[in-house]
Write a structure and sequence with these properties.
The complex is a heterodimer of chains A (about 180) and B (about 450). With about 180 residues, chain A is of the alpha+beta class. Helix content of chain A is about 20%, strand content about 35%. Chain A has helices spanning about 15-30, 35-40, 80-90, and strands spanning about 45-50, 75, 100-115, 120-130, 135-150, 155-165. The relative contact order of chain A is 0.20. Chain B has helices at about 5, 25-35, 160, 165-175, 195-205, 210, 215-220, 225-230, 265-270, 275-280, 280-285, 330-345, 355-365, 405-420, 425-440; strands at about 10, 15, 40-45, 50-60, 60-65, 75, 90-95, 95-100, 105-110, 115, 140-145, 145-150, 180, 185-190, 240-245, 245-250, 290-295, 300, 305-310, 320-325, 375-380, 385-390, 395-400. Classes of the chains: A alpha+beta (about 180), B alpha+beta (about 450).
């Protein structure tokens, strides 16, 4: 492959890129700070929050390694169910998060594309570290593809779609009791 | 060495927690429990065509399960006979053959060795390929689309192994004319806890639901009144079954609807009501819709359409492999509602499942303690209140879902197998125990 055939991303402007990154960092900070009710406000009413499963397949079948929309998933939520999760997490009875985990979200490789609709498709690599109780530690890494819709809010966007892909097939953790 | 009779005393409801931690006991379990029992391998719908395969485990042993040309299913150890390399390293797919990537021995989908590289030059054409296929799972049984296998020639037939549990299993496996299918894709995760905690809970434990899962109901229902109503279902009468180490527990529901999967699934159930009643009888269709374990490590929850295998990974670790199951040929919106109900409640991110993992990992952590490991657990709930054939429900039954009868039954079967008793001896012992219990009850 020559360098001419490597797809060049349609770059957004420097300021837009900056605003998108700052939005994502602010969102991550709300989660790390356990401000779930405010975090929920960042999603549109028609949001789809989705983490499909994946399996190990041979190179020939790799295009079908990630489960489709009718397949198995870790998360497959609409706004109402996200709200239910927030209600649970703030209930004081969600024992896998009471006492709460300590989390640290690292986001990198932010790649934004502007769509004809005026929305932005944003791919980002993430590493979420979860420390729990005494010595329990989990590590979740992968890629997110968000659809960001410009909004008349202080942070400038709402999340209309989030697809999360983990790097693992078998989750090396007892649960995903946090948001990714 | 350990003495099983000191470790579990089901008739007294006492458990020594070293059975969850001792590496020696664990190794004995692999030999005496898992290698002698019928273990779940696959569901029909996972192997749609000739050459469809999946890799799974029988306890710690990796096996390949493969659809054959004639439509039957074979299973064999995923281990090359030359130096033991895994002969297939994909989780699932469609194959014409399996070729070991170490030295290239190749096996057909029936598990026969068909090609050895340099057979003439290196082996002088003296290798008898018919003798060197991977180890076959000698007994496989297709029970209503669910394939189970055992390594043990002495084990009873699968139907005999199920015993009265068949009646309860059928409430799931035999509910619809068209049968079931699995949602594509297994959900797999790791819990640092002994496999028996999970298997026992699904056999026997409705007791944890209102406490462990109180926040699950908060997530599902915004309206506190509806939430109270859902939680109130636990106040309704219930029953539990125990037999051959298996267990099933459930509340007695007044109607098929409302189902936890919501209105789109309700519509489907109402349309199929007659079919379901015809197949199961009204009483069973309504009642037998709870938690279940087929001994030792295959479990399902009817209310949430989740089924799973608890693969043991040492005394302190489980790999959970779970699937959502659906009625085949149901309308798309009903399937969608059912699938979402499973994902949102009983995936490892589910609003119920996350709290189960928390309990089991914490218990296992505590059992690192020398004193904690020797401090007896109480499994006496409902002890002495066992009945038989209650309301026509076959087998050993309890008049409430809040009992640990099925847990004690599971540990009894576990102890019998661990003691090295033959299947014949276990059958005779069970008969005697039954006679004694019936004498006491009359």
């Amino acid at each position: 492959m020559t360098t001419e055939t490597i797809p060049v991303p349609a770059l957004v402007g420097v300021e837009t890129q900056h605003r998108i990154e700052q939005f994502l960092y602010a969102e991550a900070a709300l989660l790390d700070d356990h401000r779930f009710t405010e975090w929920l406000e960042l999603f549109t009413d028609d949001v789809h929050y989705w983490l499909p499963t994946r399996v190990t397949r041979t190179v020939r079948e790799r295009d079908i390694e990630i489960a489709g929309p009718d397949g198995a998933a870790f998360f497959d939520d609409d706004k109402a169910f996200l709200a239910g999760r927030v209600r649970r997490l703030t209930s004081g009875q969600a024992w896998s998060e009471e006492p709460p985990s300590r989390t640290r979200r690292l986001l990198t490789n932010v790649r934004a594309t502007e769509l004809d609709s005026g929305e932005f498709e944003v791919r980002v690599n993430f590493h979420v570290l979860r420390s729990r109780l005494e010595l329990h530690q989990d590590s979740f890494s992968g890629e997110r593809t968000d659809l960001l819709r410009p909004a008349d809010t202080p942070l400038g966007f709402r999340i209309a779609r989030r697809k999360i892909i983990l790097d693992t097939t078998t989750l090396p953790a007892p649960s995903i009791s946090v948001f990714l | 060495m350990f003495d099983i009779a000191d470790l579990v005393q089901p008739d007294k409801g006492l458990i020594d927690p070293s059975i969850y931690t001792d590496p020696e006991i664990y190794q004995a379990e692999l030999a005496n429990v898992f290698a002698r029992s019928w273990l779940f391998l696959a569901h029909d719908s996972q192997l749609p065509k000739k050459g469809s395969f999946l890799q799974t485990y029988m306890a710690e042993d990796p096996v390949l399960v493969v659809r054959q040309r004639d439509g039957s299913v074979k299973a064999f150890l995923n281990q090359c006979r030359h130096r033991g390399m895994r002969i297939c390293r994909a989780d699932e797919g469609v194959a014409k053959a399996f070729t070991c990537s170490y030295h290239g021995w190749a096996y057909n989908i029936a598990g026969e060795l068909v090609n050895v590289p340099m057979e003439d030059r290196a082996y002088h054409n003296e290798i008898d390929k018919s003798q060197w296929g991977p180890r076959q799972v000698p007994r496989i049984h297709n029970y209503k689309g669910f394939y189970f296998g055992t390594w043990d020639d002495e084990a009873p037939s699968f139907e005999e192994y199920l015993g009265d549990m068949a009646w309860y299993f059928d409430a799931m496996a035999d509910r619809y004319d068209d049968g079931l299918e699995l949602v594509p894709g297994a959900t797999k995760w790791v819990i640092d806890a002994n496999w028996k905690f999970a298997a026992e809970q699904f056999a026997s434990d409705m007791y944890h639901v209102p406490i462990s899962h109180s926040s699950g109901f908060v997530a599902l229902f915004d309206d506190p009144e509806i939430r109270a109503l859902a939680a109130g279902a636990l106040a309704a009468p219930g029953r539990q079954f125990s037999g051959n180490g298996h267990g099933s527990g459930f509340g007695l529901r007044p109607d098929l609807v409302p189902d936890p999967a919501g209105p789109d699934f309700d519509a489907f159930l109402i349309e199929r009501r007659e079919e379901i009643y015809r197949r199961l009888g009204e009483q069973r269709a309504l009642a037998v819709y709870g938690h279940n374990t087929v001994f030792p490590n295959f479990s399902w929850l009817a209310t949430n359409n989740t089924m799973r295998v608890w693969h043991p990974r040492g005394p302190g670790r489980i790999e959970v492999w779970s699937w959502a199951y659906l009625p085949k040929n149901a309308p798309e919106e009903a399937k969608r509602a059912s699938r979402l109900n499973t994902v949102r409640t009983f995936s490892p991110a589910g609003v119920f499942e996350t709290d189960d993992g928390e309990n089991w990992t914490e218990v296992q952590q505590v059992l690192r303690g020398h004193i904690a490991r020797q401090t007896t657990f109480n499994a006496q709930m409902g002890l002495g209140h066992e009945q038989r054939d209650l309301d026509g429900m076959p087998g050993r039954t309890a008049g409430d879902m809040f009992t640990e009868m099925a847990g004690r039954g599971m540990y009894q079967r576990w102890a019998d197998l661990m003691s090295g008793l033959s299947w014949q001896e276990i059958a005779e012992l069970d008969k005697r125990r039954r006679e004694q219990e019936e004498a006491k009850q009359s």
